[in-house]
User: Fold this.
Amino acid sequence: MKKSRTNNPDALSTRLHYPGDEQRLPWLPLLLDAYAMADEGVALAIRNEEKRRRQRLACGKSCGSCCEHQKDLPLFPHELVGIYWYVLEKVGASERKILKDRLGERTADSPCPFLFDGSCSIHPMRPMGCRQFNVFGQPCAPGEDPYYTRRGDVLTPLADYTDRAFAAVIPFYELEETDPAAAIRLIRAQIMNLQTFDWGKLAGNM
Ligand code: SF4
Ligand code: SF4
Assistant:
């Protein structure tokens, strides 16, 4: 896997590259472009908000309470395909075995199945909702959903970057709709929840 800056030298995110896989899987470059766009929007929104508040983001590498306790994790079909690919082809054998058990044994109260030792095991393919969930002030308390306890501390993603991320994957859906805004609405309407999604089929393929 390689990383590159986008065309803009001041770009705030890097786009991942999997050259062989991208040649073989036509949807993968679309998804990687979408995630690079989403990441750039998040980085820009964080930078703006940190300046405005004169305060750093609370999220840090060792902080993963959200992955344990969040019940609503948006997931779209193009993201699901990315997770399937990553789990089946990129996750190491030992992690895959643990993951298979977790996916098969999930209950509604389980933490996100992809959380391993405080880190996301599908980090390059984590959904846009995970990328955009960022909190200021103090790290979330265990079980806290800051959307309800302190909405003002939750980062509001930049809508135009989110739309551009969705626009990047329009070809994936092979829609008859030609108006991009309408196509994005159709894609958004296919929202699922990572936490309640039935991962049994993926487990069965592992
Ligand atoms: S959203 Fe909350 S729990 Fe998650 S990394 Fe940020 S501060 Fe930590
Ligand atoms: S997919 Fe990764 S980032 Fe998203 S909730 Fe699960 S462990 Fe956290």
Notes: The longest strand covers residues 2-5. The chain has a mean pLDDT of 91. The radius of gyration is 17 Å.
